[in-house]
Amino acid sequence: MPLAEALTHSLSLSSIPSVPRDIAQPLPSSPVVRVSNFTGPLLNETLGDLSILKAGGKYYAFASHSGLHGPGAFKNVPTAVSDSLTEGWQPGPDAMKNGVGSWTIDPKGPGAALWNPDVSQLDDGTFIMYYSAKGTHAGKSGHERCIGIAYSSTPLGPYNATSTPFYCPPAYGAIGLDGIKLDSKRYVLFKDGSNVPTGSHVALWEVDFKTGSKPQTDKPCLITKEDPKQPGFEGPALTKMDNGTYLLLHTDGVWDVNYTMHWATSETICGTYKEGGLLMGSGDTSGKSVVYRPGGPDFLGESNSRFFFFADPEREKSKERRMYYGELVYGNGGASVKMR
Which of 68, 191, 311, 328 has the most crowded Cβ, counting Cβ within 10 A? Predict the structure, then answer.
């Protein structure tokens, strides 16, 4: 049976026999990825383009600037914090209240329209944030975005931006950022803006492991679609399965705000990814949760199963973008292997 046909778009473990990890059979060479369960909204706040961090026993969420989707006081990087994955989330401060960088068109922030902040902790304890903002080269379209870097000694900041951007693509800009640690290396994953209209590929750039900033190659490698007709590679998140296969979660439907989440796999971290199928769409349910227009997944640290995403809790209201938590399983045929 072809992989696309084998995908069972199910959000309930009741139909997916679970195999305990300690007695699990060898993992299938052609996995089928499913959402086992999800919960939310975790907070009644607009938090789009999520990044999730665990540090010091707490969980932190970071989101695109508040002026993009929600009312209230403007924040360059809205945050939330909790002692638990799924309970007790509370709004936090603006993680970039000191400004978004002298290289942007508006160093204080609002005009630079900060998107897609992604926060990681370096081995020396420092916190690094990658983000997308309009640079001083921005043209009339307003879409010419660069990748910025900022550092902080504490998870919630304030983060201080470097004086120059990390990278400015030659066209449109860089969006959908994800700072990841895989195979004992650090990378910045981002949507290659020069191909935004077609959504054809994302870029992966290895960076200096210690600082998270200096590129280790002259240019990033490209993650491309096996078929140009595959769903768009927006808002990517990348991890590695226990069988060594690389898993890319990505979002489609950005242009009509009718988001859906999909998955694709590859035997190598860079190169062509084969589309697996739909992971989650509008109207999907888990327990008491119903989601509409889900997107923007982000794995929790180096986990290859636990992830967060945004979605609208109501069909009639778009761009609410509440925060949800989900878990993945993968398998082949009737049996599934719970991922760590």
Answer: 191
Are 241 and 175 within 8 A, CB to CB?
no
The pTM for the full model equals: 0.85
Among residues 35, 40, 43, which one has the least CA distance to residue 61?
43
Please report, to the nearest 10 degrees, the dihedral formed by the alpha carbons of residues 164, 167, 169, 175 taken in order. -100
* Buried/exposed code over 328-340 (b: 16+ C-beta within 10 A; e: otherwise): bbbbbeeebbbbe
**Beta carbons of 243 and 28 less than 8 angstroms apart:** yes
**β-bridge partners, 58:** 55
Consecutive H or E run containing 3: helix 3-6
Round to the nearest angstrom and report the end-to-end CA distance of the chain. 27
Q: In terms of Cα–Cα distance, which of 277, 279, 284 is closest to 296? A: 279
Tokens matching residue 40: 């939310």
Whole-number Å distance between alpha carbons of 238 and 204: 10
Q: Nearest Cα to 191, choosing from 227, 225, 226?
A: 225
Q: Residues 168-188: pLDDT tens digits?
A: 887 778 889 999 999 999 999
pLDDT for res 138: 58
Q: Which amino acid is at 154?
A: T
